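Practice record 12: protein with D-galactaro-1,5-lactone.
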Amino acid sequence: MTQKTIVMTGAAGGVGTLLRPRLAGRYNLVLSDRGPAPDDLRPTERWVTADLTDPASLAPLMAGADGLIHLGGYSIEADWDTVAAPNIIGLQNIMAAARDAGTERVIFASSNHAVGFYPRTRRIGTDEAVRPDSFYGVSKAFGEALCSFYADKFAMRCMSIRIGNIAERPADKRRLAIWQHPDDLAQLITIGLEHPDIHHAIVYGASHNERAWWDNGAALALGYRPEHSAEDHVDHAMAEQAKLGPNAVGDLFQGGTFCAADFSGDVTRSLNARLPRP
Ligand code: 15L
């Protein structure tokens, strides 16, 4: 059987770099970012330089693609214009290019920051209202809505993965709850690209974490079986945590320092709020 052709945006970034060796044997990868091609392309990888804010560069990128893994865009908090150009306008540009190219599958790299203002004492699934903790988180909530729209309106099949933190091991105490090993993310992406019954799935990008704040039943129902556990790295994570000072706001909410930045809210009200289900 011929291998599927899958476009990966943001391929030069940290997550893309960790995913490439894990997906290159399974798909023909069309890697893309704003800069020039790296010098380590594998035989099943090719490179297309493109910019999410330049629609003319996206049509040639998406031509012939069976699927899109969209990691591109701004990946941390910034002022609204900086986030919105790639993550709002740019996201619609790449979705439109995918639709025009007849690409059926989209994996959208959403983020835990779409729900970052849930207290750490709450266990949440994917059927609760979004609670973004930053302009960045708002852009990820928008992205989930856009994927839902493309699935309903144009019959595309999308998976929004609310990624926790992708690394070889969890970096601190917060990451013990939200960490995902790159092997497990690659497994989840493969499910999103291949499972026959996906319309728009929202799942958490997390490994098997004892301290998880999330009910990842939606991913498990699709066959996701994470092989890594944050608790195996607890000594490392806690040693790193000890180097960080306490954060009066960030330590209460799932989004951590993203919640604390520029915070002038009411902690008690946010902790106790019960939002209506969407
Ligand atoms: C994210 O969504 C960011 O892209 C990444 O840089 C980390 O900050 C991660 O969340 C996290 O919450 O650890």
